[in-house]
Amino acid sequence: MPRLPSLPIALTIAGSDSGGGAGIQADLKTFAALGVHGTTAITCLTAQNPAGVAGIQVATPALVRRQIEAVFAELPPSAAKTGMLFSKAIIKEVAKALSMHRGLPLVVDPVMVATSGARLLRPTAIHALQQDLLPLASIVTPNLDEAVILAGGALRSVEDLRAAAREIHRRFGCAALVKGGHLRGQREAVDIFFDGREELLLTAPFIRGVSTHGTGCTYSAAIAAWLAQGATLSRAVTGAKELVSRAIARSVRVARHFALNPLARD
Question: Domain coordinates of the chain in residue numbers?
Fold first, then answer.
């Protein structure tokens, strides 16, 4: 039998986007782009396209837990990420399952609201996210709205992003990547990373006229993929910023819409 190449494994625990632009589908494309075998635990099915979310069918917490356990039994991942978790009950089951594997690099994308405005995390689940899941995380990757919920206070400047990243680290003990892509008045898309020791300011030119649906999923999946390959957290974040910036810049047309292209190469 020929000697076959061995790939690192990453796990995504998230919702399915029937339009293929975000969620599990975006995560798997990103894992593949970085040479990582992707495994999944699907939390929700969504009836979704680039125009919006038409419906959500939530998996039972027990089934989510079984998916995670099945992956670990035969395909133990070297890193994991979470996306759309939706409910308090699912978050608690995910946290219980992942607490059995402490030390596993975990990226938490605190998906709360879709780009279209649809709510993807029940308000009653926010406390569970903060109390049960974030203490297990290596890094959390909030956008501006999510960072306001996690850190408090308005975010209007790069200095505000820095303060939010430090406050999130202080509150929850994990590194923070506060994404400033929606920050007004900036010439570049600015993100701030802080892990308690190191701070990074990550910038990329704004790409005008394209949709950024799925950017957060792609970004967090890229961090998880780099961590699965053994990268340090700061290297994973910088590599992920490069990938997501390229994916936006090299977006493709799909029917009447734009789609990110995480498979694009330099």
Answer: 9-251
pLDDT tens digits, residue range 74-96?
Answer: 999 999 999 999 999 999 999 99
Catalytic annotation, pick one of 174, 179, 180, 181: 179
Whether 115 is catalytic is no
Q: CA gyration radius for the chain?
A: 17
81, 212, 218, 241: the active-site residue: 212
The pTM assigned to this predicted structure is 0.95
Q: Catalytic pick from 83, 216, 239, 241? A: 216
The fold for domain 9-251 equals UDP-N-acetylmuramoyl-L-alanine:D-glutamate ligase (3.40.1190)
Using an 8 Å Cβ cutoff, are 170 and 150 in contact? no
